[in-house]
Structures are given as C-alpha cells and as structure tokens.
Amino acid sequence: MSSHIEIPDHITARTITPPFEASYPSYPEQSLDKGKNPFGTFYGEAKQLAATGDYEGARQLCAEKTTEVAIETISHFEQAHTVEEGLRFYSYALTLANKGITMQWMKNVVPGGREGQDYDQSVPGQPNRGEEILWRTSEYMLLRLHEKFGYSLQMALQIPNGVPDNTMTIPLYNPVSVDYDKLAEAFPSQENEINPVERFSQGLAHDRSGGYHYRIETVSPSHKDDNGINRYCIDIVVPEQTLLQAPFNGKVVHLVTHNTEHGIGQQYGDKDNRILVEYARANGISITAALRHLALHSSVSGSNALPRLQVGTKVEAGDALGHIGMTGWTTTSHLHLEIGAYREVSPGQFVLLQTYPIVMLAS
Questions:
Q1: For 227, which of 59, 147, 303, 333 is 20 to 30 Å away at the CA?
Q2: What is the C-alpha separation between 231 and 336, in angstroms, rounded?
Q3: First-last CA distance in the chain
Q4: Same domain (yes/no): 140, 223
Q5: d(CA 158, CA 309)
Q6: Least confident of 52-61, 99-108, 193-202
C-alpha cells in the first residue's frame, strides 16, 4: 500500500504539532508556545502596540513575523530528502494557513475583537496579509515538491476495510489538476541562479491578486453537521472555469446545473451547482463523491468539448465533468470535494450516512 500523509484538519492555533517536534521551529525557550504556536512569540509586543492605538503597527508586525515563520518553514523543507518529509512540511504549511491563525491572533490583540472579523489587513476588503503569506508558503512548497522530487499532487480515499482499526486506501484522480507552470510564474527563477528561500521572498513581493492559485482548505471532522455526522471534506481553491475531472470510475447519480447565486448564509446552502458520482454500491449503500460549487451549466452544455452529462452517465477517472465556479454558499471560486456513504431514499435523492478521510499519497 502506498504511504500517505494526512491533509490536516482545522485545529486550534495553540495545539499545532510541527512535523519534526524536537527541532522545529527554533523559537526562544521562554516562549510558552514553543513547538505549538510560533505566532505566540510576538503576541505580547503586538498587544503593546495595540494598547497605544497603533493597530497598523500591530498588523505590520504580524505580516513581518509571519514572513519569518514562512521562511523558516521553507528553509527546513529544503533540507528534506524524501517526498514523505517534504509532504509533512507541506501539510504543516496547510495547517497554518487553514486555521486563519493570524486573523484569530489579531482578534485577540484588538480590544473587543470578534470571531470571524479580519483585523489583519491594511485596506478593508483586500486580502489578509498574514494569511496570504501562509497560503503562498503552501503553494511554493507544492511547486518545490514538483521541482525537487518530480512529485505531482495525488489524493486518496481511506475507507473501513471490514476489520476494526483497519482501512483501505483507494487512489483518486486529482479532480482539479495543479498547473505547475502557472505556479512557477508566481515564483520566477533563472535556473539555479537564485536559492529557493530567496526565490520565495522575491515571490512575496509580487502582486498576485487575480492570478493563478491552488490552495487546499480543509473542514474538520470534529465538527458535526445537524445530523451528527463527522464531515471529512476539502475545498480546492482555484480560479473560476478551472477544469473539473472525475476522481474515479463511476456514474452520475445526481446533477444540479442551473444555479447562478452565491453568498454567505443558510439561504445559499442549496444554491450551488453540483454533481454526485457513484463509485460503488452494495446492499443499498452507495460510495459517492459530491463535487460542489460548479459553474453554471458547465457539466451539461457540451461546450468546450465537455460531454453532455445526465443522471446515469458513466464516467472514467480523469474525464471532464465541468468547470469550477462560485455558486451557493461561498464568496470564492472553489471545488468542495466530499466522499462518503449514502443511502438512496428515492430516485435521485440521497441521505448521507458518513464521510471518509481524504489523504495525500506520497508514492
């Protein structure tokens, strides 16, 4: 069985475990958060700045220190000798970015700070500076994994194997392929004339608003939905109209393609375009992938050489299904990927019973 690295869940900032706990990161001994929350090392200084009303100074400190954390992470990553080691640092970078650490950190710095409000930005409505640095760190590592080891991101599904504490790993075709050439454009390099850390630092200086990006956001299985079901799923954040491909051989069992609305709130919960592809069925239970937030009509129009899909259409892994969009409960274009066990209660209507973890394969 191929070795794998788990894609990290949302976990609290102060319980993060770095990949190599004994040696990383190398923060002052007196820091109570050593080895857990690297941002805790400058928390006190930021609170002092905020106490004087210098919130912009606190935000700038956050961006500068976040950059230092990013550079140290990349420096350790560059010492990795195997794909497995490299993926552990990539996983760590995803964890830092996913948690929204700098946003939560600034919430605690600003008096009266509220959960979910972004205090780490210089211009309202613009990207969070600290978070953007961490997301770029994950993208740079993904690029370097490809350059250094020839690794292309591959995911897999883990499902119970009928034996207690035993699972089966099923490789998946990546439903959203990584465009490594476009990632490289964000971090230009003239062959070997620039070292990897300096290359990353220079890449941070370029405005990438509206440019290519590839970011994996995760949803914690510790959060249960209204039916008490743990939700293992990931969001792959990419530009609109990025091609969507089937993650495995199967057939379409549910299709919604007419929606155009998007926004925040329960009223948008069922306003997304989506495809459900069934992998296997036994004893009335279906293992099915839910692919959500797709572009309008992209899966059925037949445009751009895409097939005309309908319920019952058989697909093979890698077949074009549609395009990534921004429909439903969202404010950014992305694919929501969730694979689980369903029971069909009526034709085309399914009830989710459980979801399964998605992991990154190292080989």
A1: 333
A2: 12
A3: 9
A4: no
A5: 28
A6: 99-108
